[in-house]
Amino acid sequence: MDQCRRTLEQHNWNIEAAVQDRLNEQEGVPSVFNPPPSRPLQVNTADHRVYSYIVSRPQPRGLIGWSYYMIMLPFRLTYYTLLDIFRFALRWVRPDPRGRVTDPVGDVVSFIHSFEEKYGRSHPVFYQGTYSQALNDAKRELRYLLVYLHGEDHQDTDQFCRSTLCTEEVLTFLNTRMLFWACSTSRPEGYRVSQALRENTYPFLAMIMLKDRKMTVVGRLEGLIQSEDLLNQLTFIMEANQTYLMSERLEREERNQTQVLRAQQDEAYLESLRADQEKDRRKREEQEKVRQTVLAEERRRRTLEEEKELKSECLPPEPPADDPDSVKIVFKLPNDTRVERRFLFQESLTVIYDFLFSLKETPEKFQIVTNFPRRVLPCLPTEEQPNPPSLKEAGLSRSEVLFVQDLTED
User: What pTM, to 2 d.p., does this model score?
Assistant: First the structure.
């Protein structure tokens, strides 16, 4: 609420002006209460193709008219000469306060209020913002901008506002065909614009549009112009410059399409890049998984070899062939090779298992099976039999053939 109150106070409690300024801020146009460093207004006024239409004051008619004109001429010349001298001297004593623009929106809103108090609310829709903001909106929307400079002290101003500007046909024409910005030259914002447009007399109207990528004055209407003549002149200016506006619209549409196409191409490229990156990531993950598998297999193989060597070193010595307590055993391995070794009757079946485990040809997991009757020798300790039996307890004879069964796949 405090922010809303400050905003309304800055705009003299004019809701329309406050909303217009806030919308301009959202669209990227700087607020007039936080303006950028002052710089000349970027409007091209030096185009030699500018259409200029000046309405001269009617000449006196008849003897009485010329007589009145000649009588009043010295007084008029004296008045305006003294007025110019007074203004020139006043500038040396006190600088023109209009040279400092501190509240441009306030200047425009104040002019609109005074205009409505004097001429009523039936008038064209005034742009409630600064001149720079009106230029930006006209450029962004590719619309014509009609600028009206109100000379309060000029003798033709009152008649122009009542009989031309506020008529129904002019009001409808301006509201439907263009943006309309106006301000009094007695206010800093209006005075600044008048210095940029360099009007010769009042009432003054300037038609501005985007031309050759610059905001350009394409028509100037000066003097007391009637409503029908005003509409004809504005229509003529618009028709003469319609091709430029259409060209700008086509060029902007082409730029927009190019930007959309480029954005789509960029998105497609990024999507393809993301897909390639994802493919590379999966490939790296797969390679890393394979590498880890190979490393794990290599570690397992080395561990197995170390265990086989350890088992081989821990085996008891083979008894001689003439030892009466020895048992000769022939082992048939899964790869159809035969291995023969002698053991003692009193040795545990674990010794047989360790001997076979220490062989390179033996699988990692195996069991020892007798031929007939077929039975699996309990070579390893279990919960039911923590101490495996000896060869004699297992019922082996002095000469045996045992089979090694591979359990690795199981």
Answer: 0.54
